[in-house]
Amino acid sequence: MRCIIDDATPDVHRDGRGRGGDAGGRVCPRRRRRGPHAIHPDFEDLYGVTVDAVPQGTGAALETARNGDVDVVMVHARGLEDEFLRNGYGVNRRDLMSNDFVVVGPSDDPAGVRDAPSATAALAAIADARAPFVSRGDDSGTHAKELDLWAAADADPGGDWYRETGTGMGEALNVATQQGAYTLSDRGTFVSQRARLDLVVLLEGPVGGGPAVLANPYGVMAVNPGVHGNVNYDLAMAYIGWITGPDAQAAIASYEVNGEQLFFPEAVSEDPDLRQYVPEDRRDEKG
Predict the structure, then answer these.
(1) Which of 11, 52, 260, 269 matches a 20 to 30 Å C-alpha distance to 284?
(2) What is the pLDDT of residues 104-120, one digit of tens each?
(3) Of 3.40.50.2000, 3.40.50.920, 3.40.50.720, 3.40.190.10, which CATH number belongs to 2-98+216-285?
């Protein structure tokens, strides 16, 4: 089974793709399997298949899915997910898990982000100070959140102080360390790399008691077999049912780095949000 995983989930080292419609898919060499993907062997053993998990940013992941080169996709940008669903490429979306975003930067904090009362105020302070800021610039879920925050702050990032890397989160954090810059990071990647970074958290997300706007929810959905007949829809739905089930959700909750929980299960709830299944504004459109 071919599964695209947003690369904000830390330390995934798999690449390549299986053949379209192949019930097994092809497992490609990797050095290690960590994060929520460490539980994939349980699914593989249960169904006698392999999960070919490919890490990509959300924009690239959804484009791969639009092309029918994957059976199921796990991403974290609800606006882009809704567009994907609305255009008919995805079906049966489910809430999966969440963590949050944090604003990190040099400990001397030249822009005064520590004193900002909100996330938008923090980014406005960076723009006003023209302090170095590293953007992923890669159409990922993290990049989409960053752009939303700039817009909400009524700030236009640009000029020499704003540096787009076009890379994943890990490399963006490395560049921010090298250049003494600020950046927006998902908590998981930052915690996983913190020991080798010269950066500190200056504005917490909701996991650390910060603003709710920095919440980082993940969704999982199947590629529409009515658009791409080569996808293995039955196996994709088996995977979605399994990873949103109680055993996999408990395993996701138990994943820690340096004693810190990185992901919080969202699929098992006594009061589920029915908007998880369709674009968030669908109910409003119908009145």
Answers:
(1) 269
(2) 999 999 999 999 999 99
(3) 3.40.190.10
